[in-house]
Amino acid sequence: MKRIVLLGSTGSIGRSVLDVVARHPERFDVVGLAARRDVDALRAQCTAHARARVAMADEKAHAALTADGALAKRSVGGGGEALSALVAETRPDLVVNAVVGFAGLAPTLAALEAGIPVAIANKETVVTGGEILMEAARAGGARLIPIDSEHVAVDQCLRGERGEDVDKVWLTASGGALRDRPLSTLAGATVADVLAHPTWNMGRKITVDSATLVNKGLEIIEAHWLFGIPYAKIDAVIHPQSIVHALVQFVDGSIVAQLAEPDMRLPILYALSHPARIGSPLRHDVLAFPDLTFAPVDAARYPCFALALAAAREGGNAPTILNAANEVAVEAFLQGRVAFAAIGEIVEAALAGVERVRVRALDDIVTTDRLTRRWIAERFPVGSGRARDEAAGGGAC
Known about the structure:
alpha/beta; Rossmann fold; Rna Polymerase Sigma Factor, Chain: A; 3 domains; 7-stranded parallel beta sheet; 17 helices
């Protein structure tokens, strides 16, 4: 039985992971649960997984959770270090990182350094720390296993293939909720408009990133690190049906694709059971698939995509600046403090204005993240509430 620690257990991906685990109780045992601040949801999960140790990244939420004496005995602590402490104390067979945002980096690095494989659904972690994470994985002998549907698709397409035989990788993008709106109306799109995703049921932040196509830029950075593929060989295409999740073309011209309906339980099961495959009742009828279409990314509709690719190719701390600026801007949009168009404006300004430094260690990434949030808070009217707190004290999870 595989012992699992789940970070970000109360979010959309975390809940889907627990759904998959519940369908295979003979295969998986949850020994650790961690969340940011949803006390009620974590309390219910603790009831369902009675032996799991717990942690909360938000100290006030942790205090509320541990007011229950039984849960206090199961807790490893609260605050920024709690997620890493949970990994260290439970020593699981697999860490599943479903945290939203930059805060997933430290516990992922800690797990890999300890030789514990990590199934990663937290793209910000790989985007900001890809180089040091892959070094830690090599040194610790542990693998970073993708959970995102696109990277799981690439992983399957590459099974048994040689890296030098890969000519091109395409990650597919639905295009998000604003894909078919007239360009002239995009700037005024509301939060409700952006969150009405046509095919996927995801968390709020990733749904906004889907509408700007920042998510696909981040996924290209992930693919570069996860599979060691040069950026020149990775691109994205708009695929509205969300049936094909990635395509790989080889030097002989052959193209291999992975298809499935947009159901996150499939890539989650693949990641949890890796490198084996286990039986599942999840089935999709090929004859019921819609017509499949593909189109290039429209630069006018998705200007953030080009910004993300530019940061990827620059390397260094540019991807961390990109990620931090996007997190702050998206949070401000979701809170109604800036317009949809301001997301790209804030990201572009931060990439132009924040100082570049070499990335040698985790501290360099943390410093860049904090400086970026402070730089934005000083120049844009988004630095209130949580964004200002993050500018002062680092990222949230």
